[in-house]
């Protein structure tokens, strides 16, 4: 069995997230938006989840929100950054999202908000989550999708090509929403559902955008990132190109963030099952010819 490629430098990611803690709550608007959607989705599920786990808990906002729900009895908070785990409500656990020390079939619910897009082995992580769930347990997650930061990716490609005659990767290759349903099925989830939400966020400049990404602990952690072309000339040209191609009439620039939402269930014999192909009682051809 081959190991998955190491797209992200996870040690660097942890170090940058640790460093981001003092300013994190000033730039956590995307996280709070995703948390709100996860809570909304849970609120319409008419069943109880006695034991829940918040995977990638950040500073604990979603854990606090989960504890307020009458359907949930206990919430465990898990994060790979010590400084963040310290600030989450108990019970809590310091653990790598790619290697979960959770007993099989011990949880009724797993949620994860804006964490899983930075794991190297997403199929393997989803499979571990599935194995942690009891039969008919639920999984709900939000992660960044492939359209996120397309503008920033584009201007850096143009700037590096112009200045150096070639480009290096600077924005992560986030998942495509069309692939996520297949990944849920591959991990063994039943009744998989995926959907997306696209947000446009405005900034005073591309420099302001990059500073906010840094404050989120979400700046470039690609393993094959360039170590050489991080010059003032590059960032100056990227800022100029961003203003030229992606600004509004008032001079402010915008950035796209695609949020992909996942939901799946651990299989259970009593769950609704899709009909077999060809088993329908009504021929659609007859309906449309009426």
Architecture, CATH level 2? Answer: 3-Layer(aba) Sandwich
Q: What is the CATH class designation?
A: Alpha Beta
Shape, please? elongated
The N- and C-terminal alpha carbons lie at a distance of 55 Å
Summarize the helix and strand pattern as letters: HHEHEHEEHEHHEHHEH
CATH topology: Rossmann fold
Strand content: 15-25%
Class from helix and strand fractions:
alpha/beta
Largest sheet entry? 7 strands, mixed
Mean pLDDT: 90
| Total number of beta strands | 7
- The CATH homologous superfamily: Vaccinia Virus protein VP39
Q: Number of domains in the coordinates?
A: 1
Low-pLDDT residue intervals, each spanning 5 or more residues? none
Strand order of the largest sheet: 3-2-1-4-5-7-6
- In helices, the fraction of residues equals 25-40%
């Amino acid at each position: 069995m081959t190991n998955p490629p190491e797209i992200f430098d996870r040690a660097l990611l942890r170090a940058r997230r640790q460093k981001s803690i003092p300013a994190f709550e000033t730039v956590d608007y995307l996280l709070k938006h995703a948390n709100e959607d996860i809570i909304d989705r849970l609120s319409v599920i008419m069943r109880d989840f006695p034991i829940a786990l918040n995977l990638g808990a950040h500073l604990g906002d979603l854990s606090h929100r989960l504890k307020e729900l009458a359907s949930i009895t206990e919430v465990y908070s898990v994060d790979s950054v010590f400084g963040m785990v310290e600030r989450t409500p108990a019970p809590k656990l310091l653990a790598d999202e790619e290697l979960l020390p959770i007993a099989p079939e011990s949880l009724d619910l797993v949620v994860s908000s804006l964490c899983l897009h930075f794991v190297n082995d997403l199929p393997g992580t989803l499979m571990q989550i599935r194995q942690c769930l009891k039969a008919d347990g639920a999984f709900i997650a939000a992660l960044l999708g492939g359209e996120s930061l397309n503008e920033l990716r584009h201007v850096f490609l143009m700037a590096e090509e112009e200045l150096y005659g070639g480009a290096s990767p600077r924005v992560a290759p986030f998942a495509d929403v069309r692939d996520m349903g297949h990944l849920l099925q591959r991990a063994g989830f039943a009744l998989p559902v995926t959907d997306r939400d696209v947000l446009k966020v405005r900034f005073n400049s591309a420099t302001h955008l990059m500073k906010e990404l840094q404050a989120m602990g979400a700046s470039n952690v690609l393993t094959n990132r360039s170590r050489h072309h991080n010059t003032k000339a590059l960032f100056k040209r990227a800022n100029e190109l961003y203003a030229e191609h992606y600004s509004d009439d008032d001079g402010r620039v915008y950035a796209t963030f695609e949020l992909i939402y996942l939901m799946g269930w651990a299989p259970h014999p009593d769950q609704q099952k899709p009909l077999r192909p060809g088993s329908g009682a009504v021929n659609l051809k007859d309906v449309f010819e009426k």
